[in-house]
Write a structure and sequence with these properties.
10 strands; 4-stranded antiparallel beta sheet; 3-stranded antiparallel beta sheet; mainly beta; 114 residues; 42% strand; Rieske Iron-sulfur Protein
C-alpha cells in the first residue's frame, strides 16, 4: 500500500526556539499555518489568533517568540505555549490555537499522526 505523505517542511527549516510560516493545501483548501520548534520537537498550528481570527504574524512570515517556548500574536500580544497552543497571557487567556496533526518522519515534518 502506498501512502500519500504531505511533507510540510524539514525540522531544520524551523529556527530552534522560533517559528516558520507554512502555506499548505489540506483537503483541497489552502491553509496558513505556523510551525514552532524547541530542540528536536515541533508543533504546527493554524496561523490564526483565537481572539479576533487574525494572523499571528504582523508581516507575513515574521513571528515573535519568547524564551523558545511562547508564540506571541503580533496584533494583540496574546501569548501561546509551543507545546499545546494554550494562551497563557493576553486578551484570550485560556483559549488555544487550532492544532494541526503532524509527526516527524526522519528530518521532515509531515501531516497526520501516523
Amino acid at each position: 500500500m502506498i501512502r500519500d505523505v504531505k511533507i510540510l517542511c524539514s525540522l531544520e527549516d524551523i529556527p530552534d526556539g522560533g517559528a516558520k510560516a507554512l502555506d499548505v493545501e489540506i483537503a483541497g483548501v489552502r491553509q496558513a499555518l505556523v510551525a514552532v520548534r524547541r530542540g528536536e520537537q515541533a508543533w504546527v498550528y493554524r496561523n490564526c489568533c483565537p481572539h479576533f481570527s487574525v494572523p499571528l504574524d504582523f508581516h507575513p512570515g515574521e513571528f515573535c517568540t519568547y524564551r523558545q517556548q511562547i508564540l506571541m500574536c503580533a496584533h494583540h500580544s496574546a501569548m501561546f505555549r509551543f507545546e499545546d497552543g494554550v494562551c497563557v497571557d493576553g486578551p484570550c487567556a485560556g483559549a488555544r490555537l487550532e492544532r494541526i496533526s503532524c509527526r516527524q518522519e526522519g528530518s521532515g515534518i509531515v501531516l497526520g499522526d501516523g
